[in-house]
Structure formats: structure tokens, C-alpha cells
Amino acid sequence: MSIAVTGATGQLGRLVVEDLLRRGVAPHDIIATGRDTDRLADLAERGVQARRADFADSAGLTEAFTGARKVLLVSTTTVGERFDNHTRAIDAAKRTGAQLIAYTSTLNAHSANMILADAHSKTERYLRDSGVPWVVLRNGWYLDNYTSQVPLYLQTGAVPGSAGTGRVSAASRRDYAEAAATVLTSEGHAGSVYELGGDTAFTLAELADALSTASGQGVVYHDLPVEQYRSALLGAGLPAEMAEVLSDSDLGLGRGELFTGSSDLRRLIGRPTTTLADALTEALRS
């Protein structure tokens, strides 16, 4: 049973590969793909099949997926190119005879109005129509999106955003990776759409309060008009497209598009999801 994982040079894909190995999947049954195979060299040394896969190269994707019974399609990062990249990957997996394609989508993709949701929703429809058995993993926001900003929050004493009192069901990348590994190593998931999010949702004001408690330093939430928040992101050096997407996502958070009451993630990983407090403690420790 060979399993191909796209984006294995990235953070989520790499965590999935590591979790497959932890679960006892034979290294030679794992195909780790990415554009830069040099970054997969350590996995290759452990017996994992490292193959080059460029989402712009249909023939290369077909070669990369050859022999894979299951394919995990980790959504690509460039928002404007996502749908075309994803269709090429789905077509390649179909050509090579994949028996299951698992796709990492976004929470509430069917109803969310965020910029991020559009390509995900289109990809889900394309996948359903592909004729290949499928499963959709609608990953919520990463706790890592916030913990990576902890030094800046502490430096400025503020968590900026445009989410109002919206609640976000965030979980760690490791949580989402474990859910994907569960789907790839067990049966009965074909045709399922999993809404994946943390057990306990929080507002950005609660994020600031939790960081204050964990760090012993006062941090507050600054709710900004979206134009001002976008300008702040641009001023911090983010590319224009990313600043637009992140500020728009905060508006979606405020509308409830990054919230779920589903227990799918907890059920798939067989444990409680990572808490905000634990994630902040780890971030402060590192």
C-alpha cells in the first residue's frame, strides 16, 4: 500500500510523512513529493521514496504518483494558482490509478465567503466529479498562525486583527497531520467531508488574554478596520496578495467562517486537540 504525500518539503506535508512513519508504515511504501528533492534527502536516507513533483508539470505529477494507492493532496500556497494546480494533481492521480485522493481544504469551504475558500470549494467539486474515491479534510486555522507571531505580540503589547468577537476553532498543524495520517492508514473514509477544528474556539481578545497569562506581560487585542489591518500587514513586509488574504480571512473569522462545533478532529486523532494555552507555553519556551 503506497501512499503519496504532496508538499512533503512543507510543514504540514512533512508532519504527515513523519506520522505515517510513527504509525509503522514501511518507509518504502511512502512517496514524499516536492519541488526540491534535496529537502527530502533525510527522508530518502530513511528509506522513503523521494520524488520531484511540480504542480505546474502534469507529466511530472503523473510520474511522481505512479504506484500510489492513496494520494494526499496538500493544498498549494499560492492562492491565485491553487485551483489549476489542484486539478492537474487530481488528473495525475486518476491517470496513475489512485484508489483514494484525500484533499486538505478549508473549514466551511461550502459556505465561507473568504477569498481562501473559493479555490478550495472549486477543488472539492472537481474532486467529487473526478470519478476517484475521495475524502475532504477541511482544516481549520492553525494555532501556529498565532504562536509564530508571539515575539511580535510581546514586543508591541498587542494582537492586531479585524475579527471583532468572532471565534476561531484553531488546532495545531500536528493535530491536522495526525488526522490526515489516520485517513491514509485506515478504511471507511471515502466520500466523507471532515470539518476539522480545535475543541475550544476562542476570540482574538481571548488569545491576547491567554498570552498575557502565559507570559506575565500585558497584551491586548486591537480590533482594526480591515483597511488599517491590511496596511499594517503590508508595513510588516507581507506581499500584497498575502496581506489581502489574511485581512480578508479575519473578516471571515468575524462572520463565523473559521468556527466549527464538529468533533471530527478529536475523533480522528483519538485525543483532545492541542489547547491554546499549551501552544502558547510551547511557543514561549522555544
TrEMBL record:
Residues 7-186 form the NAD(P)-binding domain. It comes from the Bacteria. This is NAD(P)H dehydrogenase (Quinone). It comes from Streptomyces melanosporofaciens.
